[in-house]
Each structure stands twice: as structure tokens, then as C-alpha cells.
Amino acid sequence: MKKQTKLIPLAMVAVLATSPFLTAVPKAYALTFDGIDATDYGTDEDADYSFDVNIGSKLSKGDQITIKFDDEFTLNEDGDENDITVDGYAPKKVEIDDDNKEIVITLNKDVSKGDITIDVDDIITNPEDAASYTIKIETDNESAKSKTVKIKDSSSSSGGKSSSKSFDLSVSGKYTEDKTKITLGEFTLSDKLVDGDYVYVTFPTDDMLPSSIDESDVEINGEEPKSVSVVKSSNQVKIQVPKKAASTKDLEIVFYDSAKITLPSKAKSSYYIKVKYKSTTYESKSFEVKSGSGSSSGSSSSSSDFTVKLADNSPGARSSYNISLDLGKEKLSSGGSIEIEFPSADMIPPIMSASSVMINGDKVSSVTSYGSKLYLKTASSFKSSSTVNIIFDYDAYISNPKMPGSDYVLVARTGSKNIKSEKFSISGSVVTDPTTPTTPTTPTTPTTPVVANNSTATIGLTKSALNTTTGINIGIKAFGLPVAANTDFIEVVLPVGFRVPTIMNAAAVKVNGVQPSYVATRGQNLLIYPAQNLPVNAPVSLLIAESAGIANPATKNVYSIGVYTSKEKNLLFARPVSVGGAVIPPTQQPQTQQPQLPSTIPATAARVKLDVAAFTLNNKTYPLSVAPYTLNGNTLVPAQFFKEALSLTTQWNNTTCAIISGTTVIKFTIGSNKAKVGSTEVTLPVAVQLKNGMPMLPIRMIADNLKYKTGWDTATNSVYIYK
């Protein structure tokens, strides 16, 4: 019987033709796996791996890269985002599965098509048997490609073949724990250096290495590396080759003094340093470390970066300061600037004569003070030098810290350098200012201010027209701590736009009707030193006449003027003033906040306190690398806070910072008061600061743009923020 042929209906044909399983397109095969580089190819050895890949399709944030290993490898599942980089950036998420022998990397940013490098540290352990093994890499867009790596017997491999010749090296230090400059080579490699590849330098002991080394403190063939990282667990420094140092077999590496490498703590006649590139390891000639007085001298010890000498180390005494520092490969040039930060602002006079400061025997061309910092500018005749000696003579009017202690330090900053001094001591009896009565507060809480109610305090302008010279009348209702005559000051912070003269006549100012003993200007701020003692909880009238020379801004707006004292860290109060006829909104009435009801602040709110390097979240306290502080009435917090307290994607380096929330991206530039919210440029109330390598950002501006609520909680004396 002839089988009957069944016809498929036309409608079903149409459905099948458009079904996903008929139209699915396999992954493209444009990915190429170009190379593998490991710090150790020995059997059963922990090794850092670097994978060079060329991707043919752009990867977006959130896309994944998967690395698969043969079963004989061991993967450390405790690894995380800090152990892996994709083209130098940490991923958003890392999943490590030792059972399935794979690492899944979720990207934190877009990656353009082309060559990329994936670095995996402290995760991979080589197989136990010497053989060739396969590693595969694939992406969400491209299918897997494999590469073979040859694992050698550890007893003979030493992580690769050794060179037949040892290379020369130069070590500037002689004694145990001396801080030292080290020059490796020049010598010839078996392979040409390739842009982006890594050179591994292994030191004989881990106590030689600091926790990190800046790129500016290292040279490879006379060029600054792309990156430098320290792997303390293996005594290694990992150096990424820059383009200008590549395409040659010649290699010279210089670690400057400022890299903070020190000689081993144990004296020995023969120490060696190894350099590995590709699969070849090179060993230096030996160098000797002697036991002696070198490390105890102070000037070369790893515990100090520069020396500080005082003519008088008594508490509160006026003294000259003599400091000497080494900038490594950087130089201070004619017309160049260097910043010196002192332990506290009250050590520095409001105005300092340039004739009282010398650098390498030459008088500086200018001195500017701001808070606890002095900014020095060298003269045009200054001869460039990497060694700098700065002398503040007695007429600089620097005074020592008022309390005895042995842990005081100075910080010097110039270019990319941020150098902390050796510790210096202040000892002896505390100097008591005869104009200031002793025991102004109870001995048990000498620094706790009285709660001062300035809810009805006032600030007004005598004239409000644009570009017009104006006086300022300030009615302070109370201080939380007493202000001592001739020693403490009232600080009036004027916003950007107001024109403030560099020198102000004290006769133009009256404090309770009395001319102050001194008036100084510091940027937009006025520092007014009263001639009389101002007690706690007593009203103060502060009148600044038009003859002081302050002029209104050129733009019609409502501006906020703040008041501080040198005795209290927090804002005393701030008030809005109208310029050019601008209308003050009702919400900008006196800003001194009443105590916040605890029930209005969620328990999940993150909190920070000024000058405390920590934040609180869910009743737990977590450390911050830098304490929040105020600048011109604005609270600045470290970028780390937004990442760890608010779980916002936050990226930063020494020049830029970005905070990402959903589709909103806020980009900052260190030292600039301009930021971008998306593609819109905005003006910040203060410039972004860099403190100890951490960008300090205005919390109010970020909260407003990302729709967070923020405020001051008087119950805990903290700034809170939540969404």
C-alpha cells in the first residue's frame, strides 16, 4: 500500500521558519588566545598568570569572560575581585569553581574589541605532574579558544630556565634596614620586551618590600612603567612594560629611594635579586648587607622619609624648623611648588613672610598658608634638585604643638610625591598662655563643647547690589567653647564670587565694639583674632565695615555665609544672603538644625563623624582610610565611603574619580571644582581634594544628584545619609 504523503499547512511552515531554533546563530569565532605568562611554571607551585587575548567583539559592562582549566589545576575559591584585573581594571564580580575548574569574570566596565590582558593573582596552583596542559578562554560573544602551557618539574625548573650570566646591580645602602636605591643591569634578555608584558623582580627577603610602590618611583629602560604591584607573599615586584621601553632585549630597572625598599634586617655577605621575563629567570651578582649603625642613624632608615630638626622642642614654643628630604627621580625646579603640612593649623601664623623661608639656601618667592598647610614657591634663580632642604627661621613664627608627644610628623607634597617625615618629639612642660585662664572646662571633658543654640543668629549685608563694596553684620548668639584673646579666631567663610582683599585693616572690624588684635584672609575666609576673651553662651556682635574692601559677586543669587571658630571643628551656623535682588526661599531660613528625632532617621542610614576615620552602618563600625572633614563649610568624605557604606560603584586614582548609581555617572577631577553629572558640567562648592591618595568628595552634592537624603544628627554628632 502506498504511503500517503502528509502536507504541512502553510501556517505551520511560517511558524517553523521563524522559530528560534531554526534562526539561532552560533557564537562568532573571532576570539584569539595569544599567550600565557606565569610567575612560576613549576609543578605544584602557586603562580600568578597573565593571559593575552584578542577579542573581536566589544564587551559591555556586565558581560562575562570564562577561563577553564584542565582538571589537574587547583583553584583557590577564596579569591575575589581584588585578585583579578581585565586590562588593569577590577571586575564587578568573580566566581571561582574548583570542582568545574573555571573562573567566571563579570566585567565592571565596557571593554573595546582588540588586545586585552587578564591578570589572575593568588588563585592558581599548577598541577602536580610535569606535562603540557590546556587553558581555555571564552566570552559571552565569542566561543572558547585554547592555549597550551608546559608545566615543568619544580626541582629542575625553578620557574623557568636560568640565564648563563649574572647581571650587575648597584645598591646605595650598606647596612641592615637602610632605605636604598637599587639599579638592576643593564643586561641582555633572551626575548625582546613587549609593550604590556610583565617583568617580575624577586627580592631575597619580604622585609625589603613596602606594601605598595608608586609607578613614579620606578624606571624600566628610563621610562615610567604602566603599572607596579607588590606581591609580598612571593617577595616580588610586578612591573608592566611601557611602550617606550619595549622592542629591545636590553633591560635596566631602577628602584629609587622613594620606593621605600630597604635592605634586609639580617646582615649577610651574599644576597641576590632575580629578574624573570617570559620563561627565563636571571640572577644578579651578589651584594653584601652589613650590620652597623646605618639603620639607627635615622636619615636612611625605612621608618623615616625625611628628617625634621627643631631649635626648641618645648610645647607651644616658637621655633625654627629645618627639614631635609629626597624626591627620588623627581626634581623641584625654579618656580616650582612644594606643600608642607603641619600637625595642626594653630602652629602656622595667618601670614608668613617669604624672607623667613629658604629652600637649598635660596629665599622662596612666595608663601601661602591654608589651614595646617604651607605652599612654598621657589625663586626663578632656584637650581633644580631632587634633594631639598627647607628652613623656616625664627621669624616665620611657627609654634610647636601645644601638647607633649613623640609621634608628630610633617607631610611634604610635590608633583606625584606624598612623603611623610620621621616622627619628632615635643617634650617638657606645657606653655600656658597668660591671657587665657586655665581650666576653662571641666578636667574630665576638656574638649567637649557646650551645645550652643544659634538658631536665631543672623548675618546681613549692608549693601546687596551686584559688584558693590559691602559690609557684613553678624550676630552670634553663643559659642560652644571659649575664644581666647589674641590666640583663637573667628572664621567667616564667604562663598566663591565674593571678592576678598588679600590684606585687611583690623580697624575695619569690630568684635563687641572692640577692634580685633589681628585680621587675616585665607582664600575666601576671614580670620578674626579678638582682642578680648569671648566666653561660652554669650552673644557676640561682629561688624565688618565697607572699608574692609569686601565686594559682592557679579551674579544675582542667594549665597550662604558660614561662621566657625578655631576651637570648634564643626560649623557654628550659616545664613543665606541675597545679592542682586535674589529672593531667599523659605526653606533657606536659619540653618542651625534642631535635634533630629531618632525615629526620622532610618536604622539603615550610614553615618560619619568629622575627623573620625570610620563610618557606622547597621550599628556596626567600619574603618575609613581618611577621616571626613569640612572645607569652606562643606563636608568632604573619602570616595571609599560611597563604595563601602552605600554600595555604589566607585572608581578612583590620583587624578580622577567616578561614582555610578544606575544610569547616573558623576565624574570628578582631583583639584578641580568642576564635575560632570552624565554629560552636564556642574560647579562644586569646593574643589575635590586628594588626601593620602584618597579623593575627598562633597557629600551633599553627591547625595542631591543621586537622590539620597542627608543631614546632621545632633544626638550622635554625625552626618547621616540614606535613600
TrEMBL record:
UniProtKB keywords: Signal
Lineage: superkingdom: Bacteria
Domain Copper amine oxidase-like N-terminal as annotated: residue spans: 617-721
Bias kind Low complexity: ranges: 154-169, 291-304
Signal peptide: 1-24
Region (Disordered): 146-169, 288-307
Alphabetical list of Gene3D superfamilies matching this protein: Copper amine oxidase-like, N-terminal domain (3.30.457.10)
Protein name: Copper amine oxidase N-terminal domain-containing protein
Organism annotation: Brevibacillus fluminis
